[in-house]
Amino acid sequence: MRTDGGQRLYSDDDVLRFSLLHRAVEEGRRISQVASMPTEVLQGLVREDEVERLGLSVGFRETLGDTPTGRVLEEAAGAVDQMDPEGLERILTRGAMVFSVSTVIDDIVVPLLSRIGIAWRSGRIGPAQEHLATVVIRRFLEWMLGTVNGGDGAPLLMAATLQGERHELGALLSALSGAAVGWKAVFLGPDLPAEEIGAAALRLEAEVVAISCVDPSRAETLPGEVRKIRECLPADVHLFVGGPIAVTRQMALVAEGLKVLHTFQELRGSLRVLAPSR
User: Which CATH number is 12-146's, of 1.25.40.10, 1.10.1240.10, 2.60.120.10, 3.40.50.261?
Assistant: First the structure.
């Protein structure tokens, strides 16, 4: 697109993106859902919408809307096996537009991560496949969090992992679970010292701090590290700890006065109790 003087205002990529966004909104999607999508994902969604409308093949509306989430899970697992990042992102994104955030977490993302972990440990998929899938899933979850996060006036949940813990998806899913029930969620990312987490919670005035622990090598140090966070926080700030290692160390954590959560459903239930009006 050019001005009368021939000066270029928008690139061809910009024009394409504007067109795709317009067509996606015409199909009934909210602009907040599609504005941050990569252009290639938008292209895939628009193309599938056109195929469905013309009745040329079975489209995703049938795949996702008229069947259980198990179908979405199978499609996503197939994309992981095929090392198809665009397909995986497209499948997850379409699922997010059909199902609730909580359903996407519990019935699609968590089982998919479990399958990927089992396949990687058994050698059925290699490290490259596992890493590629993790990158796509993390990007998808960050997009969802940005789309549904609570606004001003919502109670604040902060999620992170402790120093040495680089498995971040549990903490990211905790943040998204908070957003799903109306909380404003801040995801700090992985590998932070306990004192930094405590200081950030004070500065942000968090009402809940959620810590995820997955790495078995962190099991022995976990109770002491979360004790450091607890000591930084006022008594009315809740500290929740989750993940498989937290469950194995539950007795030691409970002895520190901490709440161990086994599932994201349990986390959402606890958050609803703390802020029922949300």
Answer: 1.10.1240.10
